[in-house]
Batch of 2 targets.
Target 1
Amino acid sequence: MIRRRICIGSSHGWLITVDESSNMHLVNPLTGAQFPLPPVTTLPFVEAVHDSQGRLTGLILNRTYSLQDAHRIMFHKAILSAAPDQGSGFVVMMICNIWRALAFARAEDKAWTYIDTPDSFTDVIYYRGKFYTISYLGTVGAWEPHGLSFKPRRRVTRLHHVLGGVPGRQPNAGLQRPGVRRYGA
């Protein structure tokens, strides 16, 4: 049932959803079309916990979590490179787990591929053939397909250098709401 799923992203008219059993699907809310994504248990840091009847009851990440808690900890954001009904293939990139790591899956993949990087990520978007990420440290990365993996294409050292790099301008100047004073100002 779609209304019991959580939505962790949307693009190209499709929702990226997770159901109560941690199954992920692309869903077109207008047509009802669905496309299954690989199980999260195919990630190297995830194990399934089953009860005596074989039902999924939890996930082991760094410790055992109930499915409800695992949803909150495991799934942060996902983005889609193209609509699955366009026929050109697609890639889903996801920010996942307590470390906010990156993983991706292509249309034909049976498993998620983990991207091994020391960064933790806060956001991901898709623009003109590349996925762009921002880390908690403000590092912006551009990622593009490289064979069966993703490689960083380009990095901006720190986002605050971009925002505050205008001569004569204070870092983050103009990024506050009008009428709100900064402390100490």
Target 2
Amino acid sequence: MKTGWHDASKWHWAISRYARFLMALILKTGVYYPRATGDLDVWIALVGYGNIINFFCMSMNITGYIFREDIVDKLAWKHQIQPEEVVEVFENKPHVEQLERGHRLGENLYVALGQTDAGRYLTVFFIHKKGGEALINTARNMVKNKTPKAPLPETFKTFEEMADFWDTHDVTDYEEYLTPVEVNVSTHPKHNYVITLSDTLDTALRQVQQKEGVSLNTLINLWVQEKLQQYTVVVTGN
């Protein structure tokens, strides 16, 4: 007998609905930290309770992370967030939801709500790629945005447009479009950084790659490893 996960997911959603409501209440009242009232601890406990029945939910595996150069720069200057903090959120068992709207055509958008190792509460938006990597779209502190609720587009035309929208709008205003997802994070994830090379560097790099007979990924990893070893020798004097 075929049983759709969607109906079961609605049951899970109903159980965890109060958790999201409490989170929204905390954010709207300006109380963010458990040392103030303990409410955020209650929210985390409720989310954990919802995960007891996570076998009814969609599930995904996170095998690694992809950080675009422009996104890393924006996270640093606009939100004061480092890539390692984003990774820590995933490693610390976040609550993850899929957004049924507000994504990019052909690619689903997800939001992860969780903590860094230092206890910082972050909201992370990401696209789950076919290879299992989480392509980070944006991330910010788990605080209530002052921007009034606006209609949520079905899709966004560009990656940047999607990031700009979620930088200024609160996901708790769109809970009718959220579906809980169970996430399994690899213990040895890959970290991919998308950087921009000049035409001259790109040409030179490909010439070396052809001469050495290895992939660009292998060549760059070897060079980075070699450079880090040289740096360690200079810093430590060993």
